[in-house]
Amino acid sequence: MTRTINVAWHQGRAMSTIKLYYDDPYQRTFTSTVEECRRRQDGFAVRLAETAFYPEGGGQPYDTGRLGDACVREVHEKDGEIWHYTDRELLPGSAVEGEIDWERRFDHMQQHSGEHIVSGMICGRFGCDNVGFHLGSEVIEIDFNYEIPEEEIRRLERDANRYVWENHELEILWPTREELETLVYRSKKELTGDVRITRWPGADTCACCGTHLRRSGEIGQILLLSSMRMKGGTRIFLLCGSRALAYVNRVKEENDTVSHLLSAKWDETSAAVKRLQAECVELKVRENEREFQLLREEAKRYEGAGHVLLFENRLSPDNFRKLVNDVMETCGGICAAFTGSDEEGYRYCIGQKDGNLKDFTKALNTALNGRGGGRPFFVQGQVAASREQIEAAVKQLYGA
Ligand SMILES: [Zn+2]
């Protein structure tokens, strides 16, 4: 049975906003009185007598929704007062109807409740502390000051999900100072004032101000996505409830696409990808052999040919350079090679064994609107000219 000792909390803080989400975290609509409305830079800050809007706190993000016609964009708590950041002004003293974005809140309750169970189980099992918690818009991150063995993660996931299926009921306690001293519970900071204890029996007891589900079954599913080592501890990434379902569906969709593309069964896609990778490697090896053959033939063709001008589009950039290197060794002159097209321009490699191409390159670049350079006997660059213009310019330079 859920025990809520909430009256003392309200009475002890007469100035505070009454927090309806502590009495009933499932309350989506409410009516309240506007106590104050302050103008802000980009809207208004509204304080009510009571609210069902949860403010940011304890790692759980704030609720959004509406107050009358006003849109509630953010909710924050300051000194026990809850401020709703709205886009419209609300008249102090007037009654207003509020409605929280339930889909957003329920998602937060699923993630938050799941986090409690996982954290409680890990801290209980390894005697460590939860030293960080972030409920992001995508995944939940929890940090522990203990290196959780990899093989324990899957076991934890099984146990956490079994706890979900067993459908345990949440207990909420507002213990007295004396009762609190005898309680064993998790807490991230030194606590003052009334302490609210949430207990998932057998899994977690924790001081927490957030909103939680009534029963563990409502979490639906807990998915431990991954973990990583950090500063002598472990960070765990997890998804609960609807987020876990959405994730599984995304992965399934992706795998279905791969399965279809590779004509592989859904549970044999990685084997199909491995086969494809092996085929790619084999093709690359064959392609390299083919290029190597081409290089040898071309180099042989220009043996003793003197100055050489060639256009070559069949080779990779590496082999294109290698071709020039091979030809210049045996041609007995300058080897100028171009690759590209009239539309996109040409890249060039020019080599001459023991030569000095400084003046040649300078004249070529000037004639063909090009740029480039390198070592005295081997230069690389590009020109913005047509094949016809290149042929004319190189012939002229060779003739000179
Ligand atoms: Zn909590």
Helix-strand blueprint:
Layout: H1 7-12, E1 18-19, H2 20-23, E2 29-40, E3 43-48, E4 50-51, E5 65-67, E6 70-78, E7 81-86, E8 95-100, H3 102-126, E9 130-135, E10 140-144, H4 150-165, E11 171-173, H5 177-182, E12 197-200, E13 204-207, E14 222-230, E15 233-240, H6 241-261, H7 269-301, E16 306-311, H8 317-331, E17 332-341, E18 345-352, H9 358-368, E19 370-375, E20 378-383, H10 387-399
Parallel strand pairs: 1-4, 16-17
Antiparallel strand pairs: 2-3, 2-8, 3-7, 5-6, 5-8, 6-7, 9-10, 10-15, 11-12, 12-13, 14-15, 17-18, 18-20, 19-20
The structure holds zinc ion (ZN).
Zinc ion binds at residues 58, 112, 116, 198, 208, 210, 212.
How many extended strands? Answer: 20
Number of domains: 3
Largest sheet: 6 strands, antiparallel, barrel
Side-by-side strand order of the widest sheet: 2-3-7-6-5-8
Discrete helix count:
10
Radius of gyration: 36 Å
Strand content: 25-35%
What is the name of the CATH topology of the largest domain? Threonyl-tRNA Synthetase, Chain A, domain 2
- Helix percentage: 25-40%
Succession of helices and strands: HEHEEEEEEEHEEHEHEEEEHHEHEEHEEH
Cofactors and ligands present? zinc ion
Mean pLDDT: 92
* Stretches with pLDDT under 50, minimum 5 residues: 1-14
